[in-house]
Amino acid sequence: MAMDGPQKTVLKLVGVVFTMGALAWASVPFYSWFCAVTGFGGTTLEADAGSDVILDETIKIRFDANTDPSMAWSFKPVEREMEIRIGETGLAFYEAHNPTDRVIAGTASYNVAPYEAGGFFTKIDCFCFTEQVLQPGETVLMPVTFYVDPEITTDRDAKYVHRITLSYTFYETDLPEELAALQSDTPKVTDLN
């Protein structure tokens, strides 16, 4: 059975819409993978251990903290800036406080600026790798262990970077299932006045 002109056009348009939808769906994981591998867009790298090479040259690391407007926590770096040798393992702490009367879970997104430094800023361990849960009134110190890859000194663009800003933003997330179940089982005190 042969198709006439309008049917062919509709079939082609449906094919185009389907193809565009598939490409849009695949673009998010592909972009995330690309950023993680290359450090593009200020995405940091991850490693299991520190660098084998430590240079005499130093670099300043600035720490920034933000919360999403709907996040009730207060969140700040303990130290605003440090200077470390390139390749040396650094340890910094952020402080989070839950001022509410309820348990809150949060997840941190992060990046570094300038973007050229993303592929050279390597985290060994970070609170941002896992969800954080704070009890009512709880304050915690959360560590991040990192180093700046010595290859930054030979990169065409990044070799001019003398200060890197590591920035985090905390977002409220759903409580883990076991905590959410405990919260729903806890009897609520009501005001009898």
Describe what you observe in this structure:
Helix content is 22%, strand content 36%. It has helices spanning 5-38, 177-185, and strands spanning 45-46, 58-67, 74-77, 81-85, 90-97, 104-113, 121-126, 132-134, 139-148, 163-173.
Summary tags:
193 residues, alpha+beta, disordered C terminus
List the helices and strands and how they pair.
Elements: H1 5-38, E1 45-46, E2 58-67, E3 74-77, E4 81-85, E5 90-97, E6 104-113, E7 121-126, E8 132-134, E9 139-148, E10 163-173, H2 177-185
Summarize, please:
22% of the residues lie in helices and 36% in strands. It has two helices and ten strands; from the N terminus they run αββββββββββα.
Q: How many DSSP E strands?
A: 10
- Biggest sheet: strands, sense, closure? 5 strands, mixed
Q: Which residues sit in consecutive blocks of at least 5 with pLDDT less than 50?
A: 26-42, 188-193
Instruction: Round the Cα radius of gyration to an integer and report it.
Output: 23 Å
* Secondary-structure element series: HEEEEEEEEEEH
- Described by its quaternary structure, the protein is single chain
Calculate the terminal CA-CA distance, rounded to whole Å.
79 Å
* Portion in strands: 35-45%
How many helix segments?
A: 2
Q: Which class best fits the helix and strand makeup?
A: alpha+beta
Shape: flat
Helix content: 10-25%
Q: What value does the average pLDDT take?
A: 82
Strand order of the largest sheet: 1-7-9-5-3
